[in-house]
UniProtKB/TrEMBL annotation:
Family, similarity comment: Belongs to the SurE nucleotidase family.
Pfam family, one: SurE
Native source species: Phaeobacter gallaeciensis
Comment on bound cofactor: Binds 1 divalent metal cation per subunit.
Keywords for this protein: Cytoplasm, Hydrolase, Metal-binding, Nucleotide-binding
Catalytic activity, reaction form: a ribonucleoside 5'-phosphate + H2O = a ribonucleoside + phosphate
Molecular functions (GO terms): 3'-nucleotidase activity; 5'-nucleotidase activity; exopolyphosphatase activity; metal ion binding; nucleotide binding
Name listed for the protein in its UniProt record: 5'-nucleotidase SurE
PANTHER family in the cross-refs: 5'-NUCLEOTIDASE SURE, 5'_3'-NUCLEOTIDASE SURE
Top enzyme class: hydrolase
Entry function: Nucleotidase that shows phosphatase activity on nucleoside 5'-monophosphates.
Annotated positions binding a divalent metal cation: D8, D9, S43, N96
Gene name of the encoded protein: surE
């Protein structure tokens, strides 16, 4: 199996090292693992692509590259340049430092990389590690994802439905719970949730020279979403697996809008 690995935390991120080890385990001794990751952190860029400017691509080692772009740029560079148009069998994005459950998924560069792979027709998974008081101070805070990642990826590949030849392809949003590996209760296939009463916000600060600046602030990450949705099962100790597509249509609203025809 040929696997392309990327992330949004950057080429030197510890979560990327964990994911590369998982990818080697999944690929097997006869497989290949290629890495194309951002030269610098790209958290929160979503599915951004560098459409109006070029991105430098630097080879750091055998099958290992960094680019001055987003995770989606990295997938495009990996598929069409570094790997010379030989499609990978699988794209893995992560392992993100922090969860991409609930509304975080909409901002995530980690998911942006997986989404781009899906748009290229390649099976893809985005993997993120939830942090909390039970795992943030571990010697390896990615312990849960490191121990359970490879087996879970194999299970998802086996269970994935046959994809249609046309339309938006599936990709998977995987979030490992904020607990040590031994405390993981299993995996749950669940929908994306929404944290009520918490959201991103902005805070103003003034520089010494009097100029105004704005910092973006995250909300409380330990608010439960609805039952049987991603953040809620994560906080209960389960890995969440959420199948997604890039189709943003609100299908439930189409019928009401028929009056416009």
């Amino acid at each position: 199996m040929r696997i392309l690995v990327t992330n949004d935390d950057g080429i030197n991120a510890p979560g990327l090292t964990v994911l590369e080890a998982i990818a080697h385990e999944v690929a097997g001794p006869d497989g290949e693992v290629w890495t194309v990751a951002p030269a610098f952190e790209q958290s929160g860029v979503g599915h951004c692509i560098s459409y109006t400017r070029p991105s430098m691509l630097s080879q750091l080692g055998e099958r290992r590259f960094a680019t001055e772009g987003s995770p989606a740029d990295c997938v495009l560079a990996g598929v069409h340049v570094a790997m010379e148009d030989v499609m990978p069998d699988l794209v893995l994005s992560g392992i993100n430092r922090g969860n991409n459950s609930a509304e975080n998924a909409l901002y995530s560069g980690t998911l942006g990389g997986a989404m781009e792979a899906a748009l290229q027709g390649i099976p893809a998974m985005a993997l993120s590690q939830y942090f909390g008081p039970h795992n943030a101070q571990l010697d390896n805070p990615f312990e849960a994802s490191a121990e359970h990642g490879a087996a879970l990826i194999r299970d998802i590949l086996k269970a994935s439905p046959q994809e249609p030849t046309e339309g938006y392809r599936l990709f998977y949003n995987i979030n490992f719970p904020p607990v040590p590996a031994a405390a993981v209760k299993g995996a749950r296939a669940v929908a994306q949730g929404m944290r009520h009463g918490t959201r991103f916000s902005a805070q103003e600060q003034q520089s010494p020279n009097g100029r105004r600046y704005v910092w973006i602030k995250g909300g409380d990450q330990h608010v439960h979403t609805a039952p049987d949705t991603d953040a809620s099962v994560n906080l209960d100790g389960y890995i969440s697996v959420t199948p997604m597509r890039a189709d943003l249509t609100a299908h439930d609203a189409l019928h009401a809008l028929k009056v416009l025809e």
